[in-house]
Specification:
Domain Acyl-CoA dehydrogenase/oxidase N-terminal: 5-115
Domain Acyl-CoA dehydrogenase/oxidase C-terminal: 226-372
Largest sheet: 4 strands, mixed
Helix content: 40-55%
EC number: 1.3.8.11
Radius of gyration: 21 Å
Cofactor: FAD
CATH class of the largest domain: Mainly Alpha
Order of helices and strands: HHHHHEEEEEEEEHHHHH
Distance between the termini: 19 Å
GO molecular function: acyl-CoA dehydrogenase activity; flavin adenine dinucleotide binding
Structural class: alpha+beta
Bound molecules: flavin-adenine dinucleotide
CATH architecture of the largest domain: Up-down Bundle
């Protein structure tokens, strides 16, 4: 098990206390209503947790990657939907950390520091896994770009103060013509659509973004024209472990709920249905702990400045798959009670972990390419 420092443990405890006081009591209500509500941002404002990735010199909490993962595990435990709100805001900030100038960072982070959230818009109706085939354009016009097109399934979009939007500055070049922009809420021509239904993470806000001749100053371009795909890929490397952390928290919650139910259902341990069930609980525990350790290892690599791109993909894939298996197993072990109670939320919430921020199939493509890459002279088999 990762040996956490006193600072890590303190932040983890604070996140757990916040989740217990604010998130857990309202998670089921928001799952039923399918609505995000900004009370979450108000409740979180005192702790400034939405600035956890913002550098200290810009006024943020500046948590290292492992600390961010510990916080997100607690939020995932409490409610994966509200955890997604936090993770998606950090995802948008990561693009600015990757490619923003100091002036752009100050401007982008200002609303976050004031208690707002960010949103990241890459996906389009025909450009999900194949992010480079998007159709939205941002065409230069004097000192501005004119943005046209749409983005779909964008987390936080209805409540975000500030967005990072990817659009083609040179459509003829395809993905090599993709660029990234800061887009502030409320620009004329920028409207928000809806998403009618979600299987899980129903307390998070997911919307469509629509752009009709939206004027954006050239000062909002992140990096250079044509660097959008590179910025998006680096951003997602940084951000995918957040999904791993939510997944670990979610899986742990399902296991804890399952154990609590079994104690209640079989107060006399002699009447528990035998080793088959107990071994399943043991397997769930093993899977969760192994997933958590892969995540922590990935975060320690990032904090040490070492390459972590493949580990990021492995952590996301493994933790999301574990969340799906464990939550499904928990429902199975609880029988019809699991299927019909609010506990089925965990299984519904788990499915998206395998889909957003790059599906698990796409992560397996990345990982298999690394496995098959020619080994350097001093072969490094097995990651040693
Ligand atoms: C609740 C929710 C929140 C989201 N939040 C955001 C957000 O904040 N910002 C944002 O930009 N996007 C967001 N998304 C979009 C999400 O990231 C994409 O849906 C995801 O990347 C998959 O794209 P797709 O749905 O177009 O699936 P597709 O790309 O159409 O894939 C469909 C299936 O085919 C498989 N597949 C596709 N290509 C390959 C391949 N080459 N090899 C093997 N299998 C393949 C996929 O794995 C998947 O199983 C969100 C989506 C949801 C549902």
């Amino acid at each position: 098990m990762t040996l956490l420092t006193p600072d890590h443990l303190r932040v983890k405890e604070e996140a757990r206390a916040f989740a217990a006081a604010h998130i857990i009591p309202r998670a089921a209500e928001h799952d039923r209503s399918g609505e995000f509500h900004p009370w979450l941002l108000e409740a979180a404002s005192a702790s400034r947790i939405f600035s956890m990735a913002v550098p200290r010199e810009l006024g943020g909490l500046d948590y290292d990657a492992l600390t961010q993962a510990l916080v997100l595990e607690e939020w995932g435990y409490a409610c994966a939907g509200m955890g997604t709100t936090l993770a998606a805001s950090v995802l948008a900030q990561d693009s600015v950390l990757v490619a923003g100038t100091e002036e752009q960072k100050r401007r982008f982070f200002e609303p976050i520091l004031a208690g707002g959230i960010g949103a990241f818009g890459l996906t389009e109706p025909n450009a999900g896994s194949d992010a480079g085939s998007g159709k939205s354009t941002a065409i230069k016009d004097g000192d501005d770009y004119i943005l046209n097109g749409s983005k779909c399934w964008i987390t936080n979009g209805g409540f975000a103060s500030v967005f990072v939007i990817y659009a083609l500055t040179d459509p003829a070049k395809g993905m090599k013509g993709l660029s990234a922009f800061i887009v502030e809420k409320g620009r004329p021509g920028f409207t928000i659509g809806t998403v009618d239904h979600k299987l899980g993470i129903r307390s998070s806000n997911t919307v469509e973004l629509l752009f009709k001749d939206v004027r954006i100053p050239a000062a909002n371009l992140l990096g250079k024209e044509g660097e959008g795909m590179k910025i998006a890929m680096k951003t997602l490397d940084m951000a995918r472990p957040a999904i791993a952390a939510l997944s670990v928290g979610l899986a742990q919650r399902a296991l804890d709920a399952c154990v609590e139910h079994l104690h209640h259902r079989y107060p006399d341990p002699r009447r528990q249905p035998g080793q088959n069930l107990q071994f399943k609980l043991a397997d769930m525990r093993i899977e969760i702990e192994a997933a958590r350790q892969l995540l922590h290892h990935t975060m320690l690599l990032r904090d040490a400045g070492a390459p972590y791109s493949v580990e990021s993909a492995m952590a996301k894939t493994n933790c999301a798959d574990v969340a799906m298996r464990v939550t499904s197993q928990a429902v199975q072990l609880m029988g019809s009670y699991g299927y019909t109670s609010e506990l089925s939320k965990y299984m519904r919430d788990a499915k998206i972990m395998q889909i957003y921020e790059g599906t698990n199939q796409i992560q397996r493509l990345v990982i298999s390419r690394a496995v098959l890459a020619p080994a350097p002279a001093a072969a490094q088999k097995g990651g040693h």
